[in-house]
Amino acid sequence: MPGLVLPEDPPAAAPPPPAPSSTHGDGDGELEGAKQDRKQQQVRPSTPKRSPIPRRSLSPSSATPRRKSSPRDSGGRKTSPSPEPTSAVNDVALDNPDLGPFLLKLARDLAADNPRKALDYAVRAAKSFELTSSGSDVPNLDLVMCLHVAAAINSVLGRYDDAVEALERSVQIPVPDLGPKNALAAFSGYMQLGDTLAMLGRTDRSLDSYVHALRIQKQALGETDPRVAETCRYIAEAYVQAMRFPEAEELCRQALAVHRERDAGSLEEAADRRLMALICDARGDYESALENLVLAGMAFSSEGGRESDIAGIDRSIGDTYFSLGRYDEAVFAYQKALTVFKSSVGDNHPAVAAIYVRLAHLYHRTGKLRESKSYCESALRIYTSKQVQFEDCEELASGLAEVSAVYEAMSEHEEALKVLQKAAKLLDGGPGQRSTVAGLEAQMGVMNYILGRSGEAYECFKGAVEKLREGGGEQRSVLFGMVLNQMGLVCIQLFAIEEAAKLFEEAKGILEKECGPCHPDTLGVCSNLAAAYDAMG
Fold first, then answer.
1. DSSP bridge partners of 78
2. In 281-397, at which residue ranges do the beta strands (DSSP E only) sit?
3. Cα–Cα distance between 250 and 243 in angstroms, integer?
4. φ/ψ of residue 72, rounded to 5
5. pLDDT for position 93
6. Among candidates 212, 166, 178, 164, which has minimal Cα distance to 61?
7. Which sections of the protein are TPR repeats (predicted)?
8. Which residues of 376-407 are buried (b: 16+ CB within 10 A; e: fewer)?
9. Confidence band of 31 (pLDDT split at 50, 70, 90)
10. What are the residues facing 72 on neighbouring strands?
11. Alpha-carbon distance 259 to 269, whole Å?
12. How far apart are CA 88 and CA 354, in angstroms?
């Protein structure tokens, strides 16, 4: 096979052969084998957290691993740095069949250290693959992988729209019916597309991509494959974060059905039961939530070294008892979890602070305000300590928002506002954080409204509304309807009656669809709208 020839130089050795593509496997289990290859060959941006809902695990999409380790070849050995072919390769030679794999390898090698140069190589590799495969009816899976790499690098560089464009193009190439290699390429592309859209806050489109990926995976592997259960759990967590609990529950049930047939009592089943408990709790089915938590705890207890997981389940059990009004049992569960966390991770760990916040809520509910405030202060000491390491800023902001909620319940609105402002400063409002920042701004607007600062409240609500509109799917959420209603009330205070009426009308349309025309929140908005019309004459 001809190699690359440097201009004005004697013939050089051919470039190193391309690492085996993840889209070429043999025998049974091709889909899984290809998945493992892709984990070695491709980069993937980290996925940010999007809500106080428990964090999601890494996507089962193997096309976009998030690590940034040194590139390795198919044998697991570190590759030597490749010479930059800037002066050696030009667009005239892109039809060379050796060039595409060579440039793709360079893109993978440089992705962590020089993403801009890596992106240039990936784009040129894609052009080369297109030229060499033109006129062929067989899907070019090397081009698909090249587009996945380019999308991942674009995400690292913050060019999310370019990443989406590359991924949307990539999912049009494979034909899943042609075999597991095509199915893997399509599945990986849709999962990576879902992650990227989620980072942009385009929730509905993100969920659609995930569902499409799951459909392809089921067709390729069957409905009872353990990897299908893993994907179901991942997508269910995405639905939970979008507050779409019926869809999340259905996916979680599918995952549990796979476990009953394949690996009953496994740690994977325990993780799914924890998620199901969260969904049941959110829907008000506390008894079912408690049942799933107990079963999950039994599975973790049968394994050694799972103390932190068991403590996390005890904390969730305390939450469920709290919701049921069984406060003594809730305190016992919280204290049990607190003891384990202190002994395993230390007194100043975020997990300890989270227990303090829960105890503060509980003691406020039972009228023990001194104890409640003491636990709030203990949590704040951890959250504001510079020595405490948090996994990300969003985790810290979420904890501060919980503390603020306790101060608000105690009618200490100034203190609640200060804590919310600290939380908002931690986030930059970038892709993946818009919904979180919008929630904080909306709550700050409520605090300012209560304190009689209508101008500041209006600015907070305005920022929240803009961010929720940018999120696309958020425009149809109950949260968005309530924020519009609150902003309308502020406009009334500022004598902007016409703007208030428009906000109330929009809120009414959303809440009628999401909650129903007879729901108390909908009726409250209708009352506000009637008052605005009356004021307008």
1. 72
2. none
3. 14
4. -130, 150
5. 66
6. 212
7. 311-344
8. bebbbebbeeeebebeebbbbbbbbbbbbbbb
9. very low
10. 78
11. 6
12. 57
Q: Looking at residues 486-506, what average pLDDT do you find?
A: 94
Measure the CA angle with vertex 1, ends 80 and 139; round to 5°: 90
Helix axes 245-262, 226-241, angle to 10 degrees: 160
3-state secondary structure of 127: helix
**Rounded Cα distance, 13 and 498, in Å:** 75
Confidence grade of residue 496 (pLDDT, cut at 50, 70, 90): very high
State the pLDDT confidence band at 431, using cuts at 50, 70 and 90. Answer: low
The H or E element that residue 35 is part of is helix 30-41
Full DSSP string of 73-86: -TTSPBPPPPPP-T
Distance CA 280, CA 271 (A): 14
Rg (CA), the chain: 27
- Amino acid letter for position 101: P
pLDDT tens, position by position, 448-482? 999 999 999 999 999 999 888 876 555 567 888 99
Per-residue tokens: 511: 């809440």
The per-residue pLDDT of the chain, averaged, comes to 82
Q: How far is CA 504 from CA 55, 62, 91, 289, in A?
A: 34, 45, 58, 36
Q: In this structure, are residues 98 and 186 in contact, taking their beta carbons and an 8 Å threshold?
A: no
Q: Is 237 exposed, middle or buried (0-12, 13-18, 19+ CB in 10 A)?
A: buried
Kindly list the distances between the CA atom of residue 408 and the CA atoms of 14, 244, 420, in Å, as whole numbers in the listed order.
69, 27, 11
Predicted confidence (pLDDT) at residue 77 exceeds the cutoff of 50? no
